[in-house]
Amino acid sequence: MVYDQPLTGSDPAMTYDLVNTIGTVCRIQQSSAVMALNHLSQQVFDLFDRIILLGEGHVPRQDAVTYMAQLGYMKPSHVESWEFLQDIAAENGMQYLLTRSNPRGLEELVECYHSSDHYLDIIRVIGKSKEFTTYWVASEPGIGLSLKESTTFDSSNFEHQEMEVVVAKLLNKSVSTSGIESSGNIQVGDVVTGISINEEPMQYLATGPIHDHKQHLNQVLSSLSHAQGHNRLQLERPDNKSNEDEPQWEQIKMPYVQPWWKSTRTLIQRQLRILKQLHMLSALRAVQACILGIFAGTLFYKLGGKYNLQHMNSVRALGFVTTMSILLINMPQLPLYMLQRPIFYKHRDQRFFRTSSYVVAHCVTNLPQAFIEAFLYSVSVYFLAGLTLEKNGVVFLDYLVLMFLVAYFGSSIFFFLSAVASIPEVANALAGLIVSIFLLFSGFVIYPSDIPQYWRWLMQINPIRWANISFCDEQFSYGYKDSCSNYLNQLTFCKENPEMASGKAYLIYAELFTSLSGKSYVPYMILIGWTLLALLMALMFLNKIKFSQVSQSVPQINERKFSKNYLYDVEVYSSSLDGYMENSIDSGRYKSLEPPKLESSSTVVISESENDSVGSWTEEFRVEVEPEHLTIPVTPITLTFLDLSFVRCGKVTQEEAIDFENVSGYAKSGTMLALVGGANGSATTLLKCLSGRIPSDGSFTGDFQVNSTKPSADFSRSVGYAERLDAHQPYLTIRESLQFSASLRLRNGISKTRRHIHIELVLDQLGLQYYANHLVGSLRDGTGKTFEVAKKLTIAVELAANPSILFLEEPISGLDSSGTSAILSILSQLPVSGQSVIATISHPNTRALSYFHQVIILTQEGRQAYFGPVGLNCHEILGYFTAIPRMPPYIQTQNPISFVMGVTGLGIPRRLALTDFAKEFQNSHLYEVAMKVVNTAMKNNKFEKDKDNSMISVSYNYPASFARQIGLVLLRTQRFLWRNVNYTYSRFTGCVMIGLLMGSLYFKIEYEDTYGVTSRSLYIYMQTILIGVISANNVIPQIGTDRLAYFREMRSKMYLPIFYPVSWVVSEIPYFLIATLAFVGIGNGMAGIATDTATNFLAYWSVLFLFTLCMTYFGMMVTFLAPSPVLAAFLVSIITSMWVSASGVVVLFSDIRFYKWMYWTNPFQYAMSTLTTISFYCDTSLCQGQCSCPWLPDGSYVWDRIASIRSLSQERSCADVVTLAGMCTTFAMLAFLFFIVLKHNSPHAH
Prior knowledge:
Layout: E1 2-4, H1 12-29, E2 34-36, H2 42-45, E3 50-53, E4 57-60, H3 61-70, H4 81-89, H5 106-114, H6 117-126, E5 132-139, E6 144-153, E7 159-169, E8 191-197, E9 203-204, H7 213-225, E10 231-238, H8 246-253, H9 260-277, H10 279-299, H11 309-328, H12 333-349, H13 355-384, H14 394-420, H15 424-440, H16 456-460, H17 463-479, H18 502-509, H19 521-544, E11 566-568, H20 577-580, H21 584-587, E12 602-606, E13 621-625, E14 639-649, E15 656-667, E16 672-677, H22 682-691, E17 698-706, E18 719-722, H23 734-745, H24 752-765, H25 779-782, H26 786-799, E19 805-809, H27 817-829, E20 836-840, H28 846-849, E21 854-858, E22 864-869, H29 875-882, H30 896-903, H31 917-922, H32 925-938, H33 962-979, H34 981-1001, H35 1010-1041, H36 1043-1051, H37 1059-1087, H38 1094-1121, H39 1125-1141, H40 1156-1160, H41 1163-1176, H42 1198-1206, H43 1213-1237
Parallel strand pairs: 1-2, 16-20, 16-21, 18-19, 19-20
Antiparallel strand pairs: 3-4, 5-10, 6-7, 7-8, 8-9, 8-10, 11-12, 12-13, 14-15, 14-17, 21-22
Helix pairs in contact: 9-13, 10-11, 10-13, 10-39, 11-14, 11-17, 12-14, 13-14, 13-19, 14-15, 14-17, 14-19, 15-34, 15-35, 17-18, 17-19, 23-24, 23-26, 29-30, 33-37, 34-35, 34-37, 35-38, 35-39, 35-41, 37-38, 38-39, 38-41, 38-43, 41-43
């Protein structure tokens, strides 16, 4: 088993349990495990048998430290083994070098290893001609070993006699070690290849320049027989496979463990379990099918079977609506398929199963879901609409099968798109384009006779068109059997075929009658063929292609050497900025960055090169600045707290749980305080309470003062809080992220010049200058130190606000030794300038904790076990706990903090504490000293203990003005949209491609007959459907992209919450102006709709832009209303489907019975009515004789015909536009309201 960073972000105690479990499994199964790790505790380190350092070291774990000691590197007791080894491998081992020992570079370390016995023994094992099992055991002295002569053959096939140490007999039972590879039990005849006596380094018996091999082996045996203590043996045994093992070995050699049928059955069972776990999602889809089915049935209520042209057109439209709805019901599955794809890639690469098994399992598990949706939808629509029940209900069953095939086809198409799309934005764009093609060439929105010759092939292979033909053929052939001769006056198309059945005559009139009419199986076969094609294409792409797993699509920025963005005048300053950094700790936080003292003022230039321009946040300044004004002073703050307690109320059980209780202490200015211990995040809860971010799900009590006064409303302006989750806007550069924070959080008196200098100093202090102009999201691929850079960025964003106190949640969690040292070294510089640092460290080590001045240790019950100094290598803490009575003795070789955590029950693994440490602390001298400091600070301002979490005033004054807040938030959102290439580019290219498609499809259709008029009017219908539905759906995932960053900013109180949705509302405007202009310019220009005058073109463009904006704001509103993006997608799909159906096109206004209210509250209706009026209006009242208004062959004018059918009026256009604008404003205001009021949009809910 091979594990690549399996424990990243895990709790160290959980890590220990996981590694221990894996080791146990490996010993039982006689297998091996290899793990790539960068951070582990000493206890976890001790669970491994061998370690491999990236500098090519490969030695037994027990010998690793002693091997380095032989090279001149001595591990101190306070440093854990993994830190010690990582430092040496990273060439940071000077601190461990013994006196008179020479430092070794990485190449020298590799050479030393290659000449060591460890390496030679590994090469010996690898070079064996036969397969051997190598294992380790621990045994007591007295095991029966003896010398044995063996015969070996060299490469020339010459025979040689060698002596070996073998197990002759077992005098007592040996005990296996707990290592992963120690799975063998000693057997008589096993060859001993290595011996470690009394914890000494392993002596390899089969390697080394030994002149008298037999004499040497006798000496080893003699030493082993007299050894006292713990010994280790490395043994080998020929791997003789029995006949019983042959089937197992043959199976292992096969590319897949299970045969195809068995793996497919296993995958089907897994997919069914996943469906069961996602039962709420399945229920949502079923509810969606029911709602849309009932709505469509009641919208077309009892229109079937009536010999009326208008009603027959409605029945034909019902076929289009039902196939469109059942197809689009499956669209919310697309993001779920994209989420499952990384898991498939992992399993495919590890050869868990064949790709075909995965695709077949998907096909099988989608069958019941598709059938349930089709059944619920079909039953609701069919009987309410009054469709035919001829042939004893067989027609209904045919309709049910048709809807099932369309639903299953839709699921297969979106599954295929999830296999070919690199990222969700591309998948959504492709889905919109493919759905547009299916609907445009369905034969409903444009009559087949009006389709240009170059597109008719696409109509012929369109499965949705054949589904519509199948529906209409069944309904009109069996539901309208009366002869046309009975309806010559009512049905105009009957005049051409008076002897024909009315239904068949209508099929000919509507161009739905084909040479395959009557062959009902043909549409079914076409749908099945398309479904199989989609699945086969998905199989091919899934089998051959693997897309990199990137959560967000950001452009990659080429790595380059950074250049300082602030330069001192070279004539004045001869030393570079980097030269001053060397003495930063001794001379102050920013003193290292100050220029030499001068008698006169100096010139400071802050500039950006042309390529590195970051807009208005970084402009060029050339001003006269006094050197002492380069830094921003920090206001010293001292926190004092007495008897703090927090009791949390369970959400389900309503039982109270104590996070921490009666915690007292202080944090003076210029000190570092660590919070350690507790259970279930007790230390983090204490950190939040100290920073003023009191959780809302509990009761906080105690005395808490800031500089001997009660915290004011502006206390949060003086603190920075680096959260554990590194949530940042991915489309800002690192420098822009700091500028955004500093511009909103620094006090108003700070000039722009000093603010920019401050930002550059912070970047330099945290070592982020190299990455300063990289987008945050691109750092995933731009550096090998991604996690460390993310931690530094989180800290830098808070330091940009120049806080007096910096609070940090687990700042070193998941970092390796060098990353931990880098972060803590940076934090240790802050107290020099008067800043305080308070951080939680869940499972500290001695070296990390030694960076802090003081520490609070909580017991597992949340009580205070210690508050006091840390001391050099934690000796102050160690001295306190070793002085407590009944403590176990401390061994000098032990790690101090590991000993302390172990006796307090906080170690790894956790055990019960040996005594009541909270009581011991309250009776200690340290407690008396702490209380003296706390009482002195509080004696001048006593206030009563609060019984709730309202210690800090609710009112708050933002540092930045409201104008600056809205300006900066708008600029940030604008950059998000501009740099989000896939979202912005896909929107624009989508509009261009759909415009080209529709323009070429409706290219210059003339008013020669009713077919042309109907097709031209339906162009507007399809245009509004496509751009409206796509706009409403596309905005949903994008708002969620930076939601976590927004929550962090709100907790930091950077700006008013209302400015976040406002920025989205305003920033979308320019993009939709361009996109709709491209859509109208290309599509309408080719189709010749609303292009007769510039006024009509501008009016059409303006209304379509307003409608697009309206639907986008609607999508935002639903996103803020719904607690999750998945639910928002379902709601948008349901509501837009209803609006499209009730827009007065597929069902005329006069035929709508129950939903006239929806007609008048429908943005699609207002947009379609206005756009149709702009495109077709002509004042026919002025026509006498010859008239320029287009007219039909029967003498009626086009506008009169359309206006009478669609209930349109030119006088109503202005009112419709105003109504559409009002709806646009309403959606935006409701989005603001939902965003502010609803709890799931609150940062405290996340």
